[in-house]
Amino acid sequence: MTKHYLPATPETVHWGYFSRTLAPVLTIRSGDSVTVESITHHANDDYERMIAGDPAAEKIFLWTKDEKTLRRRGAGATEGPFTHGAGEGLGVHLLTGPIAVEGAQPGDVLEVRVIDTYPRPSANPAYKGRFFGSNPSANWGFQYNDLIEEPKKREVVTIYELDMGEASVTALYSYLWTSQTDPDGIVHPTIDYPGVRVDHATVVKKEGILSGIKVPARLHFGTMGLAPAEADYVSTIPPNYTGGNMDDWRIAKGARMYYPVAVAGALFSCGDAHASQGDSELSGTAIEISLTGEFEFILHKKADLDGTVLEGLNHPLLENDDVWSVYGFSVANYLTELGPDHQSEILKRSSLDGAMRDAFRKLRRFLMTTQKLTEDEAISLMSVAADFAVTQVVDANWGVTGTIRKSLFAGR
Amino acid sequence: MTKHYLPATPETVHWGYFSRTLAPVLTIRSGDSVTVESITHHANDDYERMIAGDPAAEKIFLWTKDEKTLRRRGAGATEGPFTHGAGEGLGVHLLTGPIAVEGAQPGDVLEVRVIDTYPRPSANPAYKGRFFGSNPSANWGFQYNDLIEEPKKREVVTIYELDMGEASVTALYSYLWTSQTDPDGIVHPTIDYPGVRVDHATVVKKEGILSGIKVPARLHFGTMGLAPAEADYVSTIPPNYTGGNMDDWRIAKGARMYYPVAVAGALFSCGDAHASQGDSELSGTAIEISLTGEFEFILHKKADLDGTVLEGLNHPLLENDDVWSVYGFSVANYLTELGPDHQSEILKRSSLDGAMRDAFRKLRRFLMTTQKLTEDEAISLMSVAADFAVTQVVDANWGVTGTIRKSLFAGR
C-alpha cells in the first residue's frame, strides 16, 4: 500500500466536466491511499478570504484580459462566440483528478473509502488559519421562481465561517449578486459561469445575518465519481450512474462509496466540497469550501463481485458502519436514456417522483440480489424499514436516497 | 388536570372518515390527559391473532349476513347499490374519537403530546399476550404497477410479530391476497374495503420469510388529527391541513403535534397505528397494529399564538426534543384547492414534487415568522441545515417532511 499526495494545481484539476479523454494526473494501485486537495469553485465569491495568499488557488483562478489559467470551464463549446465563456459553464465544479487505478476495467467496481477530511485554511494574513465557505442562493435553486420578497429572481451569496473546534459553521455576511463583467468582457447578470471574481466594490454587504445561529458541520465532498463512457465531455452538474454531483452529506468521513467503472483506469475525480448541507441543497448550493480528503481506493474486479454486496451494481452505493444507501435519480442514466440532447433534456426531466421510482427499483434490486430476498420480501421490508430522503432538488438529475440499516441483517 | 381513559368500543370508534358532524365521545379540558385505545383496521388479515378473544375487537369487526356493527366504512355513499360497501371504503382507517376540547375554536391550535404508547396484546389463548401486526403490499402501494415477478398486480399480506423486550419486529408468514367475498355477497378481488375478514382457507401461507431479519420497532400512530371544516365526511386517506393520515414514524413517544383547529371542539381522533414504518411507506401500509396511546392535550388560543412557534400556523407541526418538522403535501389543502371532486382529483395530483414545494414554503414561513429571519436568511439556512425526507408516497396526498434542528437556535 502506497500513500500518495495529490495537490490541487492548474495541472491536477479540471473544471466543470468529467472526461474519458483526460490523462490521469496520478496512477495508483488498488489498496493505495491518496490525500487529495480540492478547491471550491465558489472561492471567488470572496477572493480575499478564499484565494488571496494561496498560491495554488491564485494560479487556478487566474483570469485577466491576457491570461486565463483554466480556459475550459464546462462540457460545452470551447470556440466562441460564447454566451458565458469557454466550456459555457455547462458543468461548474472544480475537480481534482483524474486518478487512474491500475487494471480497472468496465464492469469492475471502485470502492473509495473516505478516511478523513481537512478544510483548507485561508492563506491571507488577515484571515490566516481560518476557514471560509460560500452559500449562493442561485438561479438554479429550488426557491428561485418562488420568492416572496423583492427584488424577485434575486441571487444572494452568504459567506460562512467554519469553526473546527466547535465543528460548527456561522454566517458572516451576505450580498445580493450584482451583474459582474469578466476579464473577457462577457457580462454575467446571474451566476452563470464558474470562477467569475465578484468585484466587492459592486456589492453591498449585509452583516449580522443569521445572528446567534450555529450550523453543525457536515464536512463532505458534493462531487466524487468516475468518468462516464458515453461522451468525451460530460457536465459535472447532473449526477449519474458513475456518481458525480450527488450532494449527499453522508459521503463523509467513514463512508465507503462504490462506483461502477465505465472506462479503463476508472478515472476518479473529486471536488465541490461542503462544510455543511441539508437534504435537498435547496438554494442550489451548500456551504462551498475548499477541502482536502484522505481516501483509500480498492478495486473490486468484475469476476469477484458475485456473492458480495456489489453483485450486479450499476449505480453508486454508499456503505458506512450503519447503513447501505442507493441513489435514485430522475433518470437513472440520462446519458443513454435521453438521446443526443441529454444535456438540455435532463433539465426538463428533473423530478423527485422519477428519483423515488429509481431509488425504489435500485433498493429492490439490491435486496433481492445481495440479500437473496424474494420480491415480496424486499417490498415488505422496504415499506417497514427503509427510509427514502430527498438528496437534492437542484442538480438537474434530482435525487432520492434509499437507505437500509445493516443491523436488520445481523441475525442472518 | 384530569386523566381519562377512552376504550375502543363500537360507540367510540368511527371508520374511514373524519367528520365535523360526529358527536364527541369524550369532552376534555386543556391540560387533561387521555389514554386512547385504537384497533387496527387490518386486524382481519389474521382474525385468530388480532381479533379472536378480544371482546371489543370482535364486536367492532362483527359482520355477518344479518349484522354489521359498523356499517359505514369510508366517506362515500351509504345507500346502495355499492361497489365496495357502505361508505365505499373511501377512507379506511378505524379511528377512536372524536375527543372534544372545551373552548376550542377555529383559529386555535391543539397540541397533542404523545406521552407513551402500548401495543394491544392478542387475547386469543393460543397467542395470549403476544403482539401481532399486518403489512399488506397493496394495490395503492408505490410498487403495484411496477412489479417484476409473476403474478403481476398481486397483493401480498405479511404478518409480523412485535417483541417488546427486544423492541423489534419479525415476519411470521405471508400470503397472496385472494378474492374475498364479504357477508353481503360483494366480491373483493383486491383490498378495496376495510375490515373484510380474510378466509384463511382460501390463502396459502408462506412461512420462513425474511428469515433472520429483525426490524427495530418504531411504535407510532399513522393517523392523528382533527375534523376539517370543509365537508361533513372526509376520507381518512389523504392527509391535509388538520393532520390525519400523515404516516410519519416520528409521531411517536416524545412528540408534540400541533394541529390548526378547524371546528368548534377541535374533534381529535387517532388510529392507524404502526409497529414500524420506513420513510415512504412504500407498499401502501406499515406494520399495522392495535395500539393504545397516552396523550396530553393543550389548547393554544388564537390570541396567544403570536410570538410563539405557533404563530400563523395553518398546517400540522411536529416538535420533539431535537427538531421541528413541517409537513408538505402534494396539495396543501386539497379540500379547498381541488373543487367538489377533491376526493378523486387528489389521486391525479399525487406528487413528491408538489409536496417538496409545499414543504419548502411551509418551512420558509415557519423560519421567517417564528425565528424572525429574512427570506434570504431562511433560504440559506434551509439549504445548509434543513433536511427534507419522503414521508409517504401512498396516501393520495403525498408527503415530504421538512425538518430543522432546534439546537441551531440555542445561542439566540
UniProtKB/TrEMBL annotation, chains A, B:
- Which protein, by its recorded name, is this? Acetamidase/formamidase
Recorded source organism is Ancylobacter tetraedralis
Question: Entry's InterPro entries?
Answer: FmdA_AmdA
Q: Which Pfam families match?
A: FmdA_AmdA (PF03069)
| One Gene Ontology MF term | hydrolase activity, acting on carbon-nitrogen (but not peptide) bonds, in linear amides
Which N-terminal residues, if any, form the signal peptide? none
Top-level taxon of the source organism? Bacteria
